[in-house]
Design brief:
The protein has 922 residues and is mainly beta. It folds into six domains: 162 residues, Jelly Rolls; 95 residues, Immunoglobulin-like; 247 residues, TIM Barrel (Alpha-Beta Barrel), CATH 3.20.20.80; 94 residues, Sandwich (Immunoglobulin-like), CATH 2.60.40; 108 residues, Beta-galactosidase, Chain A, domain 5 (Distorted Sandwich); 153 residues, no CATH class. Strands 49, 50, 51, 52, 53, 55, 56, 57, 58, 59, 60, 61 and 63 form a 13-stranded antiparallel β-sheet that branches. Strands 2, 3, 5, 8, 9, 10 and 12 form a seven-stranded antiparallel β-sheet that branches. Helix 4 runs parallel beside helix 5 and helix 8 runs parallel beside helix 9.
Length: 922
């Protein structure tokens, strides 16, 4: 009986396998799982000899051929070809089945032979899955030989225009998986599903061979049957069967709660099951209301989106399921809800992740200033839609990009897509959408306020180096969020497209300024804008709030979810003393606030909470993922300063005057101030010289301190300038305490109504800097138009010369502006020193970041603008531009600092107080 039971079980498994589509991979499944094939390249490195290559892969990353970027004149004439050979066998049980040979993606033209015979016509086009029926070409009693000749550049000029003459890296090779697919002679050849939010379910099932009926049963992802079995007869051979049903109150798919189901389709001959397949899908409805917006499941939505290339530095366009998971998780972590496939359809596993984790997708037919001819485009579009059509995440199709639109294909999208998703022309006004790229802030506002189209830029805030993305997004998004004609937009782009050059000792090449456009680096290193985007696009929007002793624990919040009540979130708070003292934590009840509504979050802070320095509030979503942590100062800089500074000492300050200088000495510190200008010229302590000097220099303004006198006041010395409205309207006062601490009190005026920056700077040799510890918002640097994303805390930063978007892709960068400084301790190769301020909203400037002079940066829009000197303490800083926009066109925050006429009266001057501690030993 036991043997009989085993026999029955084995038979059942065999029968089940016979009923399902079987797959045998000839290649690996992705960049992390490859199979070696024989390979021969006709040009470039290692040409003219047979070797082996990993499949799937891009052959440039495997040491063959030549690297080409899309603008390269060389690339347009490229004649490289790769010849692949691979021997394989097929299971004996497949002998009476239909066998397809499937390629998920080959760049760019593929000629395929099996056992020396052509499998079919040459496939032209890189990013589309295609297959051949090779049933009659196979040998079952011995090895089969697969030969694939791949042309890096197509024989079809329109394919090159659409795919090769583009603003991205060009690669060659079988870059996506290859496999055999075994089907019963009578089988389900394809399924298209349209499942609406009202529970209606329509499927079109293509059958091959003679069959009698087809059924469908829905299941939850947990495997529980949902609804009744639907049965439809099959009339004739090779039929298309329409299946219609209605399901009660399905769980809907959207970007916040991406509920999915499995549909199991079964084909019968009589009562015998001959084939079964399953298809994952979601119930959801997409509707465009002209002059209004995009509605998903009846809810008006806005795209918080980014453009994404299929890319990894060491493997080019060959990716993996894990990389897709990582990419989508990072997008969700930035509180994005949408992604655009730029500029070609992605790997299927990426769309699977968008389905599972919840991202709206714009799937794109390739085309970049050039487009496919109509026959080629029709064929490739058919392949794209057949491959991608059932993904509920896809809510738009894009017909090419930036002029690469073949208008003849617009109707083909409609003919082929059962769901009738809207078709977009990125960079163009089309079908009720204004999608213009990289228009300035005012242009967008004009369209919102005076236009009638739905405004949804498919590329905006081009993130070259450290510009764009977070810089400018706050202004753009507030306008987008509050204007009903805005449907949001898509940033350019997700990751720096830096490729490892196997021909240049492994350096990462971004083709100068063409590739460093990402929110993350080539290996997904998080840049400063990553956290800015995370805060700005957080669905929990907290109204700015100054925390004073009168704070009642209430924070006003807006629910910027589209589908989720705020009571599905979780909130915690933490009080912290920044000197390493106590912390207190607690939770807050998530308020009942509907999407787009306002309400209050009540924090039950304990008695004595004002003794702490910072209040942190953290929001978590329904899956317990952290949305963002906000920090609110409790103790202002003047309070922290009084804790840190020491004024008393063992004896009085010693003052010596010469013809040119005031010399002071206290507690081992000796300082020299210029008698005419008042500037610090030299400082040292018992251990030696400290290299901070030549300050404060007013930037942007006039350093016109004059009329200095030195006065002994008890144990303290005060060196003070005089005010003269005509010639010395900026005033400077130094107070030297017996402790050796030195106080700087400056009143100063900007040099013009509109300034790039305003503050004071000092000289310090950069080569002597080791690191800093500081209390402020960090750890990333900021710009005037990118202030969000940081956290108030004590940060440590080691010196580096790293620059955003350039090797070694090290973050956070050291150089630049840092927000909300309270104090900073400078660790140098010599003696450390500390600067403390009692002035609010001071920016710490650490040296000057430099982006290489790029001859391809023809517009010069990025504009890194910094004052003279080396270390500065600023009360106004500059914004930063993007590749396509100057900083002032990214919105009000990117404009210059506006300083109205102070009339050169002392009471109207800007004021800053700094304390310097030069007493520290090495």
């Amino acid at each position: 009986m036991k043997g009989l039971f085993v026999t029955i079980c084995v038979s059942a498994i065999t029968l089940l396998q016979a009923q399902e589509t079987q797959r045998q991979y000839l290649s690996g499944t992705g960049s992390d799982n490859t199979v070696n094939w024989q390979f021969y390249c006709t040009g470039g490195r290692n040409a003219g000899k047979w070797g082996s290559i990993a499949v799937p892969s891009c052959w440039e990353l495997q040491g063959y051929g030549k690297y080409d970027y899309g603008f390269s004149k060389d690339s347009a004439r490229g004649k490289e070809k790769g010849m692949y050979k691979y021997a394989f066998t097929v299971p004996a049980g497949w002998k009476h089945k239909k066998i397809n040979l499937v390629f998920e993606g080959v760049m760019t033209d593929a000629e395929v032979k099996v056992n020396g015979r052509l499998a079919g016509k040459v496939h032209e086009g890189a990013f589309y899955a295609f297959s051949y029926d090779i049933t009659t070409l196979l040998q079952y009693n011995r090895s089969n030989q697969l030969e694939v000749t791949v042309a890096k550049h197509s024989a079809n000029a329109s394919v090159n225009a659409a795919e090769r003459k583009a603003d991205f890296w060009l690669f060659g090779g079988i870059f996506r998986p290859v496999y055999l697919e075994a089907l019963p002679q009578q089988h389900i050849a394809g399924v298209a599903i349209d499942a609406k939010a009202d529970g209606s379910f329509v499927a079109k099932v293509q059958t091959a061979g003679a069959a009698d009926k087809v059924t469908v049963q829905l299941y939850t992802l947990a495997g529980k049957a949902y609804g009744d079995v639907v049965t439809v007869p099959v009339n004739g051979k090779d039929a298309t069967v329409a299946m219609n049903s209605h399901f009660q109150q399905p769980l809907l798919w959207n970007c916040e709660t991406p509920h999915l189901y499995n549909a199991v389709f079964t084909l019968y001959q009589g009562d015998k099951v001959v084939h079964t397949i399953q298809q994952r899908f979601g119930f959801r409805t997409v509707e465009v209301k002209l002059r209004d917006g995009i509605y998903v499941n009846g809810v008006k939505v806005k795209m918080k989106g980014v453009n994404r290339h299929s890319f990894w530095p060491t493997t080019g366009r060959t990716t993996s399921k894990q990389l897709s998971i990582d990419d989508v998780l990072m997008m969700k972590d930035m509180n994005m809800n949408a992604v655009r496939m730029s500029h070609y359809p992605p790997d299927g596993h990426f769309l699977d992740m968008c389905d599972s984790l919840g991202l709206f997708v714009m799937d794109e037919l390739a085309g970049w200033h050039g487009h496919y001819d109509t026959p080629t485009g029709r064929s490739l579009l058919k392949e794209m839609i057949a491959h991608d059509r059932n993904h509920p995440s896809i809510i738009f199709w894009a017909n090419g990009n930036e002029g690469g639109h073949n208008f003849d294909l617009d109707a083909v999208f409609t003919q082929l897509d059962m769901q009738q998703r809207p078709v977009i022309h990125p960079w163009e006004s089309f079908s009720g959408f204004e999608t213009q790229h990289y228009r300035d802030y005012s242009y967008g506002i004009g369209h919102y306020d005076h236009g009638h189209q739905i405004v949804m830029p498919t590329e905006f805030l081009h993130g070259m180096y450290d510009g764009g993305h977070g810089a400018g997004l706050d202004d753009y998004w507030e306008a987008m969020w509050h204007n009903p004609l805005s449907a949001g937009g898509f940033l350019w782009d997700f990751a720096d497209e830096g490729v490892v050059r196997t021909d240049k000792n492994g350096v990462i090449d971004t083709d100068d300024n063409h590739g460093p456009d990402g929110l993350v680096g080539p290996y997904h290193e998080k840049e400063g804008s990553y956290f800015t985007v995370k805060e700005i696009w957080c669905p929990v929007h907290i109204e700015p709030k100054d925390i004073t002793a009168a704070f009642d624990g209430k924070l006003t919040i807006e629910n910027r979810y589209f589908y989720t009540n705020m009571n599905q979130c979780r909130f915690t708070w933490k009080l912290k003393q920044t000197n390493g003292g106590k912390e207190l934590t607690g939770t807050a009840v998530a308020p009942d606030i509907s999407p787009s509504a306002h309400g209050q979050l009540q924090l039950a802070l304990p008695a004595g909470w004002t003794a702490y320095d910072v209040l942190y509030v953290t929001a978590f979503d329904a899956t317990n993922h952290e949305l963002f942590t906000w920090s609110f100062p409790v103790a202002l800089p003047n309070v922290i300063a009084q804790r840190k500074i020491t004024t008393s000492g063992a004896g009085a300050v010693q003052l010596t005057e010469t013809d040119s200088a005031f010399q002071v000495a206290a507690n081992g510190v000796q300082a020299l101030f210029h008698k005419r200008t008042g500037l610090l010229q030299q400082v040292s302590n018992a251990a030696g010289k400290i290299l901070l000097s030549n300050g404060p220099i007013v930037q942007q303004g006039v350093t016109n301190f004059a009329g200095f006198t030195a006065t002994q006041k008890g144990d303290t010395v005060v060196i003070r300038s005089v005010f003269d409205r005509a010639n010395s309207y900026n005033t400077l006062e130094w107070t030297i305490y017996p402790s050796g601490w030195i106080k700087m009190n400056i009143h100063y005026f900007p040099g013009a109504y509109f300034t790039d920056f305003i503050g004071v700077n000092f000289s310090f040799p950069e080569k002597e800097m080791v690191s800093v510890d500081y209390l402020g918002k960090g750890p990333y640097r900021v710009w005037k138009n990118r202030l969000k994303g940081g956290m108030l805390d004590v940060w440590h930063k080691d010196y580096n010369s790293a620059e955003t978007g350039e090797a070694p892709f090290q973050y956070p960068e050291f150089k630049g502006y840092h927000a909300n400084m309270y104090w900073c301790r400078f660790h140098t190769k010599g003696r450390a020193f500390t600067v403390v301020t009692e002035t609010e909203d001071v920016f710490l400037r650490l040296f000057t970041p430099v982006v290489k002079d790029d001859p391809k940066d023809t517009w010069k829009n990025l504009q890194y603008v910094f004052p003279d000197g080396d270390i500065s303490f600023m009360q106004g800083i500059s914004g930063v531009g993007t590749k396509t926009q100057k900083r002032e066109t990214t919105g009000p925050m990117g404009m210059k600092n506006i300083m109205y006429d102070y009339e050169k009266e002392p009471a109207r001057a800007l004021n800053m107080v700094l304390y310097f501690d030069f007493t520290e030993k090495p």
